[in-house]
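Hi support team,

I submitted a single chain yesterday and got back a structure, but I'm not sure I'm reading the token output correctly. Could someone confirm the output below corresponds to the sequence I sent? I've pasted both exactly as they appear in my results page.

Thanks,
R.
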Amino acid sequence: MKRAYILVVLIIAVSSLSCEKDELKLPSELNIEFDMNAFSLDEEASKGPQLLIIDEGSLIINTMEFDGKREQGDDYFFSSSFEIPVEAEMHTGKSNQNISFDIPQGIYNSIEMNIKIGDKEKTALRLKGRLSKGPFEDIPVVFEYSFSEEIRVRAEDKQGNRQIILRKDRPSTARIIMDAPRLCRLLNMRMIMMANQAVVNGEQILLINNTQNTEIFNIMATRLDQSLRVIFE
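Hi R., thanks for writing in. Yes, this is the structure output for that exact sequence:
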């Protein structure tokens, strides 16, 4: 009788364990969205206030990787290469395609997203804004990063926590944010006012790339991997 009781207990335990494993395999819907934090820099000068604003951005993504470490169950990794690169308008949240993945549910103690940007035909990252040198002088500002790059970002929730819970019955959103204040943190108005201007399509602009105003470009480019954020909601 005792042996039969132990056998029943073992069967129940194995069955329970199997159910738990099955639960950890159930998918949770994850949607990818885009956003941007604008940057502004102002300074009072003899000719009046000077103002730099960067508030528009576009990003080209060709591959996205998910690397998650779970508290229970196996860790989860996947890589998705887009046949047509994702073109995201960061400041409006619009993109040329909807991005959604099924991720095994569970408590993730760490999630890292590896975002590969760049395309042979289009600029990987372009930021736009304007420079007001005085009350009647506004100049468009354009930052271009044309290289392919892999940017690895550790995801957080809205409270800044690294532990993220994905549930089968509740779709989640991972918001990829271009944080322009982080990218432009080391800029000052003096270097901006001294930058060379270029004529593009008949318009005078302040162009920052790997051939124009390279000092400013290098300052911004070295902060690129700190300026993409992934926030789970």
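A quick pointer for reading it: Helices lie at 2-25, 180-183, 189-193, 214-221. Let us know if anything else looks off.

Best,
Support desk
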